[in-house]
Specification:
- This protein is of the alpha/beta class.
- The chain has a five-stranded parallel beta sheet with strand order 3-2-1-4-5, with helices on both faces.
- It is globular and about 55 Å long.
- It contains eight helices and five strands; from the N terminus they run βαβαβαβααβααα.
- The protein is 38% helix and 11% strand.
């Protein structure tokens, strides 16, 4: 008797904590994960190296890496080394210059193409609307609108079988994400969230601050950056 294959899900994998947790969740939900990562002109390659490590750890068999250079026209400190990275903490109502114009819209569109070609039933995204920097393309209403586009823009959509856009972390706090990652066996130490591309996380950028605080609050200060641990010990 032939064993039934698991349904497929495309997972957008940046190499960061959130996307790695979304990938692990897809696998826990019974999907065969297909990872999709992007070289989008980001100022360092450290996160893509982390994505490769996460793929190996989770046993993902297919990993596509696309070159879509959004950085060539600037507009974000994540793609333009001449722009200073914010280090003052997330400010309510202010979208920081780390926002990359159109990034998620481009990424999800390409993920829809891959999903249709691979007959995947779902696309898992690590977007979050709670502990984040206010990006407009990380909100539930954005995701709902894109689902409507997915339903209308493809052959499988017209057949009523468009891939579902799944954002399992969208309503989680960062500490909730850490706890979920720990429960799912995500190799947190192999993920990379820092906006800098050094040997160790800087501990000062907004992304490091949010991550370190969550790791400490979740009882895992050992996984925080050296700067984060130092600041905790001074309290």
């Amino acid at each position: 008797m032939t064993a039934q294959r698991s349904p497929k899900a495309v997972v957008l994998l940046s190499g960061g904590l959130d996307s790695a947790t979304a990938a692990a969740q897809a696998i826990a939900d019974g999907y065969e994960a297909i990872a999709l990562s992007f070289q989008y002109g980001q100022r360092h390659q450290r996160e893509l190296a982390a994505a490769l490590q996460v793929v190996r750890h989770l046993g993902i068999q297919q990993h596509f890496m696309l070159d879509v250079n959004l950085g060539q026209w600037g507009g974000s400190s994540l793609t333009d080394a001449a722009m200073a990275l914010p280090q003052d903490g997330v400010q309510s109502g202010v979208i920081p210059n780390t926002y990359v114009p159109g990034r998620n819209t481009v990424f999800i569109a390409l993920a829809l193409s891959l999903a249709e070609a691979q007959q995947a039933e779902a696309i898992y995204l690590g977007i979050n609307a709670v502990d984040y920097s206010g990006y407009p393309d990380c909100r539930p209403d954005y995701l709902a609108a894109f689902q409507q586009l997915a339903n209308l823009s493809s052959k499988v959509g017209l057949e009523g079988k468009a891939p579902r856009l799944v954002a399992p972390l969208v309503e989680d706090s960062k500490v909730d994400i850490v706890r979920r990652a720990l429960a799912l066996g995500v190799p947190i130490h192999q993920t990379w969230s820092c906006y800098e591309g050094g040997e160790q996380p800087c501990g000062r950028c907004d992304s490091c601050r949010i991550r370190d605080r969550a790791l400490i609050d979740a009882g895992r200060p050992d996984l925080a950056s050296a700067v984060g641990r130092s600041q905790m010990s001074m309290r």
